From TrEMBL, chain A:
Its EC number is 1.14.13.149. The keyword Oxidoreductase applies. It is an enzyme of class 1 (oxidoreductase). Keywords: Oxidoreductase. This is 1,2-phenylacetyl-CoA epoxidase subunit A. It holds the Pfam family PaaA_PaaC.
UniProtKB/TrEMBL annotation, chain B:
One of its GO terms (biological process) is phenylacetate catabolic process. PANTHER family: 1,2-PHENYLACETYL-COA EPOXIDASE, SUBUNIT C (PTHR30458:SF0), PHENYLACETIC ACID DEGRADATION PROTEIN PAA (PTHR30458). Signal peptide: none annotated. It comes from the Bacteria. NCBIfam families: PA_CoA_Oxy3 (TIGR02158). It holds the Pfam family PaaA_PaaC. GO terms for cellular component: cytosol. Coiled coil: none annotated. This is Phenylacetate-CoA oxygenase subunit PaaC.
Amino acid sequence: MDAINKEPEALEAAFQAKVDAEQRIEPKDWMPEKYRQTLIRQMSQHAHSEVVGMLPEGNWLTRAPSLKRKAILMAKIQDEGGHGLYLYSAAETLGISRDEMFEQLHSGKAKYSTIFNYPTLSWADIGAIGWLVDGAAIVNQIALCRCSYGPYARAMIRICKEESFHQRQGYEIMMTMAQGTKEQREMAQDALNRWWWPTLMMFGPHDRESAHSGQSMKWKIKRQSNDDLRQKFIDATVPQAEFLGLRIPDDKLKWNEERGHYDFGEIDWEEFRSVVNGNGLCNRERLQARVDAHDGGRWVREAALAHAAKKEARKVEAA
Amino acid sequence: MTDQKMHFDYLLRLGDNSLILGQRLAEWCGHAPMLEEDLALTNIGLDLLGQARMLLAYAGEVEGKGRDEDRLAFHRDTMAWRNLLLLEQPNGDFAHTMARQLFFDAFQYQQFAGLCSSSDERLAGIAAKSLKEITYHRRHSTDWVIRLGDGTEESHERMQRAVDSLWGYVPEMFDMDAVDDAMVAAGIGVDVAALRGEWDRYIDEVFAEATLSRPEDSWSVRGSREGKHSEHLGYLLAEMQFLPRAYPDAKW
């Protein structure tokens, strides 16, 4: 497209026509500045969530109860680091560097999924994270596989494949514990009690209160509404909990024949806002751990750069 | 000691080495100096854990008392562990972790290369599979020791300090005792004492490129083959073994 000679309105109209025609927007294509900013916000938040999400699971990696579980969890956490890397690279196509994104995370300007501000207190929490948190992430990410921005959509397709393995391993942990000793069953139920509502919050505010939704839908960054995705997750998960013999902590949860969906109770958005605003049990630890890793690793990164420069200089000298 | 007991003990040493170092690397998860290293360290940890599982499962079978990999991993106390002292040392900074890794990778590379022709075919198979991984581990730790040694002033100092502080754990790797002798005689094991010359050549080359000084052989500690460990191992085990110990009737 010959962008230079066109008026902004014409460019925007051509862009929207392309989106409407279900064509992917690629890094070199013209795009509205707000589209770019929205994607940077969303993709970097997604990448940060993958990386911060390594911490609550890493909390149990050294205490996994069997060598097989340890190996599976290690592979899963490694996948998540890989997803982070992949998403940072995809976000970089929008003209922001990984260092800038880290800076925004460490200063609090950029967010990560607030679910990771909850603590992992028992091994069952590792099961619950895989089953519920990754389960919710899959529902969100499947929708994103059709996102209008090409690099993001392609990243999502790849990531979804691995996420379904993550969810299965989580469900398997829950299954083993739900069928285990009395103490294990209690741990499993307790984990479900603590993770259920925060997981539902992962889908974001109700559609009527969602600030960015309308524009994102129009740009096809977002393909389905928060409430639709949440309902989809609940409908899929309730039978899974029943199969485990665990009780979902919601008295209002009930199959609605007419709607063909489960009805459920009201989410405590006060708690959501409170945790987002810093009052979760782990907000400070999670962020501090990332800042410490980054700051503590600066000398290593500087050494790598210095060594590469020396090597290059020697090569030039020898030539 | 019977041949069977010695065979068991020999496999246990190999498996414990891999498991304890893998456990230490798992502690880095989410805290590495860069995301790429988070991936690399968990990758290496996973390889080591895989080796440990094969070796401990096999050790349990050779012992014949019904102990599987988890029984051996989670229900032995400090004195029953046979891992090298080097491997239970705390991670320290990234330079420490890389010095520990290089010393062991260079050793394990030679040891497992030898084990590939073990008369114990199952062990030879495990060694052959693992050697591919170890080749990558050794390249990774070698590259980092060189980068840090010949990087900035700060990284050079840190790297030298790490090498100095771990040097006394090196000689133990090359010790031979009655179990090692018997396993060499049976064609199962490797004469590790004979590996020292090649190890020194490799390490000296790395040190030269990294502009690091080879420490003097002024101290050495040993004892892991008789279950004598540093105090660090007890804490590592307390953390690793917590769940199966706290809930002995549970399956996970």
